[in-house]
Amino acid sequence: MEELVIDVERRSSCGKGANRKLRREGVIPAVVYGGGKESVPVVVDRHAVTELLRQEKGRNTVFLLRMKGTKQERHAMVRDAQIHPVTRQFIHLDFIRVIKGQRVKVEIPIVLVGESAGVKGGGFLDWSCRSVHVECAAEEIPQSIEVDISALEVGDHVTAAALPLPAAAKLLDEGHKLIVAIEAHSGTIEIVAPVVEAPAEVEPEVIKRGKVVEEEEA
């Protein structure tokens, strides 16, 4: 497990107004909780944390949190990250404490490797699911799950149960969940509009107006 360090600083003020002020100062309000201990409100440097979390290795990573001005250190993961809908910046983070050997539930991205033989032969790739949920030890969280699709022919598929998970990891999704399939291109269907025959011409019926006078008997 590659250890990444985040420096945190305890914050004394809470509330929406105080948090907005902190964000203007370039820090993100956060909280550290779990592990049988009380929650601790902290702040983290926005630039440093953003650089870490937006890297591939920042996903599902166990960070070492270091409290500024003390010798306190604690391993933790990002449990929740709130993002501003317009600026797309992080505005609040929730860290959950973890210890070595503790099993955690995480979402792992799927990476496809190789080029399918079926695609080379004219089929197309249907990548239905791009991540799965697993439970594993905190220090054994993979950055991604690689799926080699080189041998897949048209009609072949890979389900969640067939993914190469770490030995002690437990799949939390349904095993029959479709991950990727190689489908055949359907033929072009020509749509022909039905021919509607014009109705035969019918002579108009002449309706005589006026009073009908019966002929007198001879």
Tell me about this structure.
The protein is mainly β. It is 10% helix and 39% strand. The chain has two domains: 4-99, Ribosomal Protein L25, Chain P, CATH 2.40.240.10; 104-183, RNA Polymerase Alpha Subunit, Chain A, domain 2 (Beta Complex). The chain has helices spanning 16-24, 46-53, 117-120; strands at residues 4-10, 27-34, 37-45, 63-67, 73-83, 90-97, 103-113, 124-127, 131-137, 145-148, 157-159, 170-171, 178-183.
Task: Describe this protein with a few key phrases.
Ribosomal Protein L25, Chain P, RNA Polymerase Alpha Subunit, Chain A, domain 2, 3 helices, 218 residues, six-stranded mixed beta barrel, 13 strands, mainly beta, 2 domains, four-stranded mixed sheet, 10% helix, disordered C terminus
